[in-house]
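Lecture notes, unit on protein representations.

Consider one protein chain, 163 amino acids long.
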Amino acid sequence: MLAIERAPEPTDEARVLIGELEAVLAAEYPPEQRHGLLLEAIFHPQIRFFLARLDGVAVGCGGVLLLADFAEVKRMYVRQPQRGRGIGQALLGRIEAETSVAGLTLLRLETGTAQRAAMRLYEKAGFRRCEAFHPYAAMPPERIAGSVFFEKRLQLAERQATA
């Protein structure tokens, strides 16, 4: 059974998952091309962070940074052995719902050129490639040389649309 739950504070499970994600990214990109938030920064009031549990075990995570004009997907990760089981789609679904409920209709993300499975997931979910957005657009080109940017337009949640 798959469950997506909000993690309001750093837990050991979140630390382990973010550590695994960092190890994957460190093998592919130099430090200046890695733009992930530190664990403590993930638990900022503007961020909703989620753990994906499969049969009670944390196997993935992802969050969303809610800004004034758009939201940004942060720290998406699913452990390799559990990929292909709909966990990434479930995390994205929860992130999209949170974005919509917050009254935002634009969801963006930055990922790396080597994250081919992630790019397929995002494209399958309706994301389209776009130009670099803030804060990445202000970075020197060598800092985003390994980056690919995506965005997706969302519908407002029903309760927001009728309010």
